[in-house]
């Protein structure tokens, strides 16, 4: 038992199985022998964190060693407006600051002006979860890509990389129009 105490006090870091050691030392008072072995340590050399296993019980390592899974970031879109299927009709609502649904190139597109709070829509990272909470687009999506159209093409050429998107998020940039493309999750 003394050699076991010495190994614990000098930096033992593996899993220690006490069940067989305790049974070899005698069947009497196994619980206190296991307790003595794990708590008796010298003041100059503290006991490292180690799992101690006995038949029927297991003490776990410090909770500081357990890493929590990072919480997934989710972008939520509560509502949007529909002002008509033409670019001209959609533009009136977009100019009022509304996130607006329209259909360039046949793709469900939510568009808004960058200077009216919608600047973030073309910057969502690939893989980001996006939840649309209302309307015909209600559901959960993932960003799979981005696109860009140069200045003067608003309502004109839609990026080919987004033609198969379930939803496109569109906003103005300083020199054109930016997009994030979404697929249903």
Task: List strands and helices in order, with pairings.
Blueprint: H1 2-9, E1 16-17, H2 19-25, H3 30-39, E2 52-54, E3 57-59, E4 74-77, E5 81-82, H4 87-95, E6 100-102, E7 109-112, E8 129-132, E9 139-150, E10 167-173, E11 176-184
Parallel strand pairs: 1-2, 4-8, 5-6, 7-10
Antiparallel strand pairs: 2-3, 6-7, 8-9, 9-11, 10-11
Supply the CATH architecture of the largest domain. Answer: Beta Barrel
Number of separate structural domains: 2
Biggest sheet: strands, sense, closure? Answer: 8 strands, mixed
Which regions contain 5 or more consecutive residues with pLDDT less than 50?
A: 2-45
Characterise this structure.
It is a single chain. The protein is an alpha/beta fold and 185 residues long. 18% of the residues lie in helices and 29% in strands. The protein folds into two domains: 64 residues, no CATH class; 111 residues, Sortase, Chain: A, CATH 2.40.260. It contains four helices and eleven strands; from the N terminus they run H-E-H-H-E-E-E-E-H-E-E-E-E-E-E. The strands form two sheets. Strands 4-8-9-11-10-7-6-5 form an eight-stranded mixed sheet, covered by helices on one side. It is globular, with a radius of gyration of 31 Å.
Give a quick summary of the entry.
18% of the residues lie in helices and 29% in strands. It has helices at 2-9, 19-25, 30-39, 87-95; strands at 16-17, 52-54, 57-59, 74-77, 81-82, 100-102, 109-112, 129-132, 139-150, 167-173, 176-184.
């Amino acid at each position: 038992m003394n050699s076991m105490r010495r190994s614990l006090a000098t930096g033992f870091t593996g899993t220690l199985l006490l069940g067989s050691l305790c049974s070899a030392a005698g069947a009497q008072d196994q619980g206190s022998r296991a307790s003595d072995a794990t708590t008796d340590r010298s003041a100059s050399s503290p006991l490292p964190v180690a799992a101690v296993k006995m038949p029927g019980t297991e003490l776990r390592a410090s909770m500081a060693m357990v890493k929590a899974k990072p919480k997934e970031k989710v972008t939520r879109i509560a509502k949007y407006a529909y002002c008509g299927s033409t670019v001209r009709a959609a533009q009136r609502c977009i100019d009022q600051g509304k996130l607006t649904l329209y259909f360039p190139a046949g793709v469900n597109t939510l568009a808004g002006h960058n200077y009216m709070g919608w600047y973030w829509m073309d910057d969502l990272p690939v893989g980001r979860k996006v939840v649309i909470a209302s309307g015909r687009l209600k559901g959960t999506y993932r960003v799979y890509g981005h696109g860009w159209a140069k200045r003067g093409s608003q309502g004109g050429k839609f990026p080919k990389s987004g033609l198969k998107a379930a939803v496109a998020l569109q906003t103005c940039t300083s020199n054109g129009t930016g997009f994030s493309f979404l697929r249903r999750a």
